[in-house]
Amino acid sequence: MTAPLVSFVIPSYNGEHFLGETLRSIEAQTLTDWEAIVVDDGSSDNTRAMVRGWPDPRVRLVERAQNGGPVVARNAGVAEARGRYIAGLDQDDLCRPERLMRQVAYLERHRDVVLVGTQAEQLRDGRVSPLPYPAHSTPDLIGWLTWIENPLVWSSVMIRADIARKLDPFTRPELVYAEDFDLYHRLSPHGRLARLDEPLLLYRQHAGGVSKRFVDTMRKSATRAMAEAHDDILGEDAHILAALLVLHNMGGAPVADVATLRTLGEGISRLQGAFIARHQPDRESRKLIRWETARRWARIGRTALRSGAVGLGDVIAARPPHLGLGYAGIENLLVSGAVGAARRLRRVG
């Protein structure tokens, strides 16, 4: 049997409600040389019967007798993959028709890239809307953002299979719900990460989504992954800064006090300096890195101000000079500061 060019790996658990539409989005791909490996993770619904009866022979079923979770299921699918490239996809997300063609073409042209994702849009209650990812990217921007957050939607990524097989395990079960974020760090020594800026994936948002139900576990796993990645730069401070980045940059929680805000700003500045020194990004990438970092700092500052935990002078004093304020000019911060002041008064009253 001739090996396909691309292997989709789709972990599935009780996915019959969404999986059919996902598989049909794969069948609509303009690049037709693919296989779709559905790993049924001990479902109690009709997922297995649906996949067994699927009329397209490119769809394969791997059956697990007991539910082991999405990481274990994904690793089982990667072990079965025969393609030159492995495409991530969750059971409820949808591919645009040109996804595979564009990603394969990019990886064929850029031999130094080991993983390429795509921009994504969210699908909620039948409506499509943007996700809050940068509109424009370069590999260096994606590389930098990986140092402070998760910049890629897992269902959009494509990985070189020969590199994926060097990782043992492919994704680490102990970092469940942030295993993709951890994987990006573990792939980085093998080559660059990139993203296509065209939205080629629909990321389905619904109440049963894992990311909504297991936030605490996800934060712990993401903190560990980030701390391990930055241990060589930050040493003993790595876990402290990782926890702050996960909570306040990735999670959007307001900082509690000025000292925390200062620690966060100094840590981001230190990491950014280390990244630029190590990777020497070109002028365009350096500009994007500065701008996107400034946007995140502005958001952290606005959230802190609106909570009433800090004042405007605290935000300005805690900001390292080169981080900037992104879209948040002084007027924007004044409004946030006024909201925070009103909240402080209500608490006192």
List the helices and strands and how they pair.
Layout: E1 6-12, H1 16-27, E2 34-41, H2 47-52, E3 59-64, H3 70-80, E4 85-88, E5 94-95, H4 99-109, E6 113-124, E7 127-130, H5 139-148, E8 158-160, H6 161-164, H7 179-187, E9 192-204, H8 210-213, H9 215-234, H10 238-250, H11 258-279, H12 283-307, H13 312-318, H14 330-348
Parallel strand pairs: 1-2, 1-4, 2-3, 6-9
Antiparallel strand pairs: 4-8, 5-9, 6-7, 6-8
Description:
The chain is an alpha/beta fold and 349 residues long. The protein folds into two domains: 6-212, Alpha-Beta Complex (Spore Coat Polysaccharide Biosynthesis Protein SpsA, Chain A), CATH 3.90.550.10; 254-348. It has helices spanning 16-27, 47-52, 70-80, 99-109, 139-148, 161-164, 179-187, 210-213, 215-234, 238-250, 258-279, 283-307, 312-318, 330-348; strands spanning 6-12, 34-41, 59-64, 85-88, 94-95, 113-124, 127-130, 158-160, 192-204. Strands 1, 2, 3, 4, 5, 6, 7, 8 and 9 form a nine-stranded mixed β-sheet that branches. Helix 7 packs parallel to helix 9 (215-234), helix 9 packs across helix 10 and helix 12 (283-307) runs parallel beside helix 14. The chain is globular, with a radius of gyration of 21 Å. Residues 333-345 have low confidence and may be disordered.
Give the class from helix and strand content and strand pairing: alpha/beta
Could you tell me the CATH topology label of the largest domain.
Spore Coat Polysaccharide Biosynthesis Protein SpsA, Chain A
Helix fraction, binned, reads 40-55%
Rounded to an integer, what's the Rg over CA atoms?
A: 21 Å
CATH class of the largest domain: Alpha Beta
Please tell me the CATH architecture of the largest domain by its name: Alpha-Beta Complex
Task: State the shape.
Answer: globular
Main sheet?
9 strands, mixed
Number of strands: 9
Count of spatially separate domains: 2
- CATH superfamily of the largest domain, by name, is Spore Coat Polysaccharide Biosynthesis Protein SpsA, Chain A
User: What fraction of residues sit in β-strands?
Assistant: 15-25%
Low-pLDDT residue spans = 333-345
Summarize the helix and strand pattern as letters.
EHEHEHEEHEEHEHHEHHHHHHH
Distance between the termini: 75 Å
> How many helices?
14
Average pLDDT confidence is: 91
